[in-house]
Amino acid sequence: MPITRRVCMPSEMQSIRPRGSRSGAMTILKTDLDHGCGAMRQSATPRRSALKTLLAPAITACLVTLAAPALGHAASCKDSASPGADWTDCNKKALMLGGSDLQGANLVNTDFTLTDLRGANLTGANLEKATLVRSSVAGALADGANFSKIEAYRCNFAGIAAEKASFVNSELQRANFSGARLTGTSFEKAELGRANFDRAELTGTRFSHANLSRASFANSSFTGPIDFDGAFMFQTRIEGVNLSEATGLEQEQVDMTCGDGSTKLPAELKTPTGWPCATD
To answer: Which residues pair with 136 in a beta bridge?
Structure first.
């Protein structure tokens, strides 16, 4: 059977008498009961006050944490192109943004598919994980910009000034870097199948562990070392290129490339018997 508990109420206690009692000797006095219930109420009040004191800081901290993202994130996809703009995660597909000044802008994960960014100022901008599929950044200023992990299949980077920029881990198949200034730029672990570096300035550029399958370096120039450590160079076009100061090159890499009699290799490497390659 369920157990019923009764709450101590002074109005009830005045009539309570122990079962079987014939005298008033064991009568429970109302004043005693009132005193007991009052004591319980008084002892509960400090406990409630202490609990509120303990919980108040925790509740305040939770409210601050919940409000922080809304206060700290200022990205606005409706903002116009301007230096320092924050277009994080925004959809900027198929727009005419040529000549825009986006210096130092936060363009992380922004979708620029088919967008015209020709001649834009992207100096120091952060485009990590941005999408630039079939877009054009030709002639843009992008020194020190972060293009790491971008998806830029068939993107036009012709004539871009991107010295000391980063294209690490980027998807750049069939991208056009002809005439680009890429001194000190990193393409480490980038996918550059059939990319075009015709007439590009590549002094100090790093292609370590990049996929350069069928990429073209025809007429490219560099006056210092260029790093090919671990690069995959299947039929990479290096006809007429002076690679005498290149670092990281192994004979097995060179054997897969396509050069000719005017290609210059580091002193320790030999000209492959398979040169020149058939026209692709």
So the answer is: 116, 156
- Beta bridge mates, 146: 126, 166
Nearest-angstrom CA–CA distance, 243 and 13: 104
pLDDT along the chain (280 residues), means of 10: 48 45 44 47 55 57 47 72 98 98 98 98 98 98 98 98 98 98 98 98 97 96 93 97 95 97 96 88
| Total count of residues recorded for the chain | 280
CA-wise closest residue to 164 among 137, 188, 192, 145: 145
* Chain centre to alpha carbon of residue 162: 20
Q: What is the DSSP string of 67-134?
A: HHHHHH----TTSPS-TT-B-TT-B-TT-B-TT-B-TT-B-TT-B-TT-B-TT-B-TT-B-TT-B-TT
